[in-house]
Amino acid sequence: MTGKLRALLLGAAAAAAMAAAPAWAATVKVGVIGPFSGPFATAGQTFKQAVEVYQAMHGDSAGGNRIEFVYKDLDQANPAQSKALAQELIVKEKVQYLAGFFFTPDALAVAPLMDEAKVPCVIFNAATSAITEKSPLYVRTSFTLWQATVPLAQHVYKTGVRKVVTAVSDYGPGLDGEAAFKATFEKAGGQVVDSIRMPLKSTDFAPFMQRIRDSGAEAIYAFLPAGPTTLAFAKAFADNGLKDKIKFFGPGDITQEPDLPALGDAAVGITTAFHYSRAHESDLNRAFVAKHKEKFGNADTVTFTSVGAYDGTHLIYKMVEATGGKPDGAKAVEAVKGLSWESPRGPLKLDPDSRTVVQNVYLRVTERVDGQLQNTEKETFAAQPDYGYKLGK
Ligand code: PHB
Fold first, then answer.
1. 146-274+361-392 has which CATH code?
2. What was the pLDDT predicted at 375?
């Protein structure tokens, strides 16, 4: 065989191999860290289901690259374990993106690894403002406590309430919520009469109920991480007879949809400010909820962490498109700064500075509609930024 003929044959073989190969050029891996077991397992489940819903609605490739998700279970706030899992994902699984993160300390713990490996991280939930200040490679599609709390505190003042007690879990998002409420409410002319901080792992809220009662406040602002904690707190509030005496306000974690059936009447009348309600009236939200029903038999888990993951997946697709599937963390993040898109929650824009989404915050009241509890949106505070980003810096 002449050299020319061999080259021709090899060329033909290569062309045939290419034709037989799937349409995508490469597989881009995304490592998702979240609670898939333990008391907060519903949150991890919402991450995974929403990623699958996004892929069902938009396909499993971006810019000719197949996107593959790898999941790692982190059942609680545990920064050392979070770092170990991220390391394993980057080194062994060769993921190009990190994503997920329910608890703030777990998201914060991976910043040094991200910077070293130049791997972006898309936060599906963790909501303390300072996180995105710790690495230029974080982007966040959830919300921040400052974002939800500033318009809520203004609303509380407008209702005529003047004395409020705050009660928060004693860690990042709780302290942000406490600070945002106090700063906004006192600037308006109100007074925070007591600021209660509860250990993150508290399960018995009875002692705090006594302190809330004794505070003399007309209303409470409360934040705890959504799940068994919020459920136990809201139940204790009702069971201790405080519901008729003290008006209940907070970000929407406290009345997240998966917990409403167990909360029952304890949830009725709670007023929250939040970025997502399953009852949000839009075609895209109806399609989003319907796709969960179609794929998983029901939409019982759909909540704010679902849209965090759905929109986070959208950003990952856009970053993969912009980099042609090649690892270039800085270019990927640059490409999505300022991006606008429609989410099941409403319009979104990724703020180029804070790298957190600018979004509508809705004032909602938990009520029964056709026998089912839901968070009904009553008012829209349009295009809210992360008020806590680089605050005082
Ligand atoms: C957080 O740790 O940042 C966090 C956890 C659960 C929430 C909100 C924020 O519901």
1. 3.40.50.2300
2. 98
